[in-house]
Design brief:
single chain; 8 helices; globular
Amino acid sequence: LAGLALSLVVLIWGMIPLMTRGWSPMATAFAAILLVSSATIFCLVRRSCYRSAALLGSLSGAGCGFLLGALMVWAWQLSGLAGEGAALLASTLPGIDMQGILLASILVSAIGAVLDVAVSVTASMAELVSYAPDIPLRRLWTAGISVGSEVLGSMINTLILAYLGSALPMAILISSAGANLLGILNDPYIGQQIVQSLAGTVGLLCTIPTTAFFFVAQEGWNRR
C-alpha cells in the first residue's frame, strides 16, 4: 500500500503536471518510472542487498520494451492522436508533444508488469540463497530463469487481455463497419494498443534474464 501511494503521488502529482507545463514527456516518464521502481522495490524486497538487482533488472526490461515501442511507433507512423482524449488534449494544448506522450505511456504501462516479474525473480532467488547459501551460481541462474519463465506466461496474457479489453469497443465498431482484420490492425487506436502490448511483452522477456544476471553478479560479489 505504501508503494502504491508513492507511485500515485509520483505519477499524478509529479509526472502529469510537469507534462502539462511542457516538460519533455519521455524524460519526465523516465524519471517517474525510476522513482516508482525504487519506491516499489524498497517496499517489497526485504533483503536490501538484492534491491539493486531487482531495480536494474526492471529498468533494463522497461528500457528494452520502450526501444521496441519507439521503433514500432516510427514504423507504424503513429502520431499519438488516436482517440477522443488525445485529440481533445492536442486541441486544448496545441504545443504539446503527442507522440512523446504516446512513447511515455508505453514506458509507464510497461513498468508495472515488469516490476512484478523482477520482484518475483529476485524474491525466489533470494529464498534459494537463504535456504542453501552455497548454491552454485550457475544453478542459481537456472532457477531464476525457470521461475521467471513460469511467471511470464500469465503476465503476458494479463497484458494482452488488458489492452484488448480497453480497445474492445473500438474494435467492435470498426468490425461492424465491414473492416477485415488488416483494417482493424491499421486503425491508429488499435495500433497503439498493439504497440503497448508488444512493448510490454518484450519488456517482460528481457526482465527475466537481466534480473537473474544482476542477482547472480551481486551474489558472486557478496561471496568474495
